[in-house]
Amino acid sequence: MTNLVISFLASIMIWVMFAGVGLLWIIDGKIKKEVAGHAFLASVVAWVTAAMFKSFFPALRPFVTNGHETLVIWDPTGNSFPSIHAAVAFALAVSIWLHKPKIGSVYLLGAFLIGAARVVANVHFSADIVVGAILGVTVALIIEKLHIDT
Fold first, then answer.
1. Cis ω on the peptide bond leading into residue 82 (within 30° of 0)?
2. Chain mean position to CA 128
3. Could you tell me which of 3, 38, 7 has the C-alpha nearest to residue 118?
4. Which residues contact 46 (CB under 8 A, 6 or more apart)?
5. Mean of the pLDDT values across residues 67-83?
6. N or C end of the chain: which has fewer CB within 10 A?
7. Cα→Cα distances 148→32, 49, 78, 142, 145, Å
8. Quick one: CA dihedral 138, 141, 145, 150, positive or negative?
9. pLDDT score of 77 more than 70
10. Which fold has domain 2-146?
11. pLDDT mean over 112-133
């Protein structure tokens, strides 16, 4: 059961977060078009930025260095540093939190759980998650500061 929870958090939870933004915008109306647009834009920019960083910092993943298996659904490929999942999850969460703190707090918890699960699942080191989170938060703050109309 524990492995299933870790696998869900490390592999699927990020998609649940994205679906939640769309669902809240469409059904509940608590997240307006601007909030969802900022969240999606910040997520894309965070993904691209983290992917570029990965090309400059070739780092093996924990399961490669320690020989233990992973607990994720899909076998990860590429470099470990920084975590794209963390960058995207935190960009999404902070973007929402800046507009809607109550809902954003739930998303921040989800981002933290994703990061922790990626470490426990043996696909990232803690530093990968921390730097990914910093990237995601920074991108979300820049998008908010620029107040880009989406």
1. yes
2. 12
3. 7
4. 84, 87, 88, 90, 91, 135, 136, 139, 140
5. 70
6. N
7. 14, 18, 32, 10, 8
8. positive
9. no
10. Vanadium-containing Chloroperoxidase; domain 1 (1.20.144)
11. 90
